[in-house]
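Checklist before submission:
- one chain only
- standard amino acids only
- sequence pasted in full

Submission:
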Amino acid sequence: FMGNEELAQRRAKKAQQVLRVNESEYMEIWVESTTDGKVRACISPDRNGLLRATEVMVKKLSRIVRELRPELPWFTQKRDGEMCIGWKRAMQVEPQKDKSCFLNWNNAMVESFKLKREEIEKGFQATNTQAEAVQRCR
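Returned file contents:
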């Protein structure tokens, strides 16, 4: 679309709304694939489920680490699920499709800043009691 950006955004939003069945559901659209026959095409303004889960999990982790160590210069990379100290990754949440979650650690940062790994893991486990429960950490 060549023209005003706001008009393009409005047209895209209208195209998505036409496919809306109800408040949280869109019509299913099937297209012919070159290799797999018919496949489902998703048209939605939402981010994919894994990205949403990553952002939710890192937000929970952020609250915990900022409460435990408020003096550190924490920075959150929501899209990547990373908690950084001064732009260096200290830990990362990695949600899985089976609703479990890995909590990955940068051991050098844990040692250097004397992070209490067990406390953070315990707090993180406690906040994830819904379907996205943390089942395992590494």
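Reviewer check: Strands lie at 20-22, 25-26, 29-33, 37-41, 74-77, 82-85, 88-95, 101-105.
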